[in-house]
Each structure stands twice: as structure tokens, then as C-alpha cells.
Amino acid sequence: MQNPHLSNTEDLRIFQIVDANLDRAREGLRVLEDWARFGLGKENCVERIKNFRQILGKNHLQIYKQSRNYIEDRCKGLTHKEQFKRKTPEQVISSNSSRVQEALRVIEEFSKYHNNELSKIASEIRYEIYTLEIELLNLSKQNNSMKILNENDLYVITDPKENLLNTIEDILIAGVKIIQYRFKTGTDKDHLEEAIKIKKICKKYNSLFIINDAVDIALAVDADGIHLGQNDLDMKTARRLLGHSKIIGISANNEIDISNALKEGCDYIGIGPVFETSTKKNKKPLGIEKIKTLTKDLNLPWFAIGGIRKENIPSLKELGINKVAIISGVLHSEDPKEEAIMILKELSHEN
Ligand code: TZP
Ligand code: MG
Fold first, then answer.
1. Whole-number mean pLDDT of the chain?
2. Separation of 48 CA from ligand 2 center, angstroms?
């Protein structure tokens, strides 16, 4: 433990550095832990962070704590203006992860010669924090998307039409917070270009931007998520490609589709068609009662879809179906903006 090459004052200075940085690392870890616990509800992350905190706590020896009072720290209380700029939980996660990483690096360097075990521990935890930071940021991003899905009842899906971009902007102005870009014909090149433009508009209105089917385009434009049908890429592959920051929605038509979607860890489900619809002519409508039965135990966001328009929303609401996904009922109405406003109003009525 003692290094014969260090004089007593040098010892104290080094112990003081280690002490300050153990405090720093433990405090930063506590911030990350509380976000993982209260912000994200991710038990696995909480346990990992707690474990790091405890290891550092156990290695926070008395000699370090006692060194605190010997040499005055003239920089105590100094702050940096960047500290006051942090607004979002993501910024807090990033800055506190850096704080922990930096503190651990300092511990690693300064304890190498008098406490090699602590130096190694600091190095190991530092590497783990790099991974954890990305995980927490991804989970936070997904959390934000889930919040929008949970809090909004109207999900509008696009269909090719003239002036699509203007229509989307009108719908967003009306207050729609979830847009899915859906295309069944055309070239990837055109879709990519259009997706970039739609994403930009969605961001402007703080709305969720989801892409139908095309995982490659979702990745290319950094969309918020993907929506997959039963014949598209499977959930597991999509998750592997997209990671945990994106949301994945699944189309379901029956009990088996729903139970598979849940098992595979989808984030929301679109269930239908409820009513007859020219957008999906080959699918037999399920009817409201069947939708109600299929969804009775669901506790993730789900949207009824198929043939829904302003006029039939009250019949859905009567049975407690409050979240809907619509294509033609908005996109191909005479005035999509006005229609979206009225549908939102209809959905918000207490029944
Ligand atoms: N999935 C089930 S029904 C449907 C999809 C994509 C079509 C919905 O379109 P519309 O025009 O709202 O009936
Ligand atoms: Mg599909």
C-alpha cells in the first residue's frame, strides 16, 4: 500500500485526489442509478449501477477520507457554465456518465502505485460505464417515444397522394403526434428522399416518426421506429438491426399474432381491420366486439385500425376502444387538417 518514493505530503495529495474522485464517481453513479430506477424503471441497470457504487464505497478507505482536511482545496465550489445548460434527462445522463468516467480515470492513474487493486477496479468499472451510458441513452430515447404512444390516441398513417408533405404538416398542426410513413410501390431512392423530408417535419412538431416495413430506410433516416406486418422482417431481427432506442410496432389480426408480438417484445400493436376498408380489401373485418375480446388483457399501447373514420369513433369509444390508427379517414378526406382536428376532439370526449 505505501509507496516508499512518496513523501508524506505527496501521499496526502494523492490520497486527496483519490478521495475527491471516489466521491465524484459515486455521486455520478447515484444520478445514473436514480434515472434508471425512477425515470426508466430498469431493474437490471439499477442493480449494475448499485453494484459499482458499492464496490467503490468499500474501497473508499479511511486514509483517503482522512486526507480531506489536511490540504485546503482552493478550487472548491468552482462551477462551469455548461452545468447550468443541462435540461433533458439525456443531457444529465451524458454529463454524469462523463463525470464518472473521468473520475474513474483519475483514480486509476493516481492509485496505480499505492493501491493497484483500486486502480484495476476503477479501470474495469470505467469500461462498463461506457456501455451503460449508451444503454441508458437508448432506453431514454425509447422511453420518450413510448410516452408519446401512450399519451396520444390518434395515429395517422400516410398513403401516396399529391402534396403529401403539405398534408402531413397540416395534420401535425392539427395536433397529431404519431405519423407512420407507409408506401407499397415506388423506389427505395424516392422513399428515402421523402422519408428525410417527413422526418424533418415531424421533428419540427415534436411528433413520432415511424416507418412501415422498411428497416433500412428507418435506419438511414434515424426514424423513431418501425412498423412491421406479419410478412415483414421478424421482431428479433428488426430489434437486432435497430437496437433499443427505437420502437417496434406489429400488425396483428388474431390471438396468435398478438401473443407472438408480445413474446417477442414489441412496443405497440396495431389490431385490425376493425371495419371493412378499401385500403386492405383482402382482409375480413374483425368487428368491434372481436377487437374488444382480443385486447382485454393487453397492457401495452395498441391501436384499432381499418376503416376507422370520424363517424364510427363513438361506437369504438362506447366499448372502451380509445386509440385508433387511420389512413384514408384522414389522408383522403376533403380537408385532412380539419378532419384530424375533429377526430382528435371525438377521441378526447369523455364517455
Ligand atoms: N392494417 C390493417 S387495416 C389497414 C392496415 C394497414 C388499413 C387501414 O387503412 P384505412 O384507410 O384507415 O382503413
Ligand atoms: Mg408491412
1. 93
2. 38
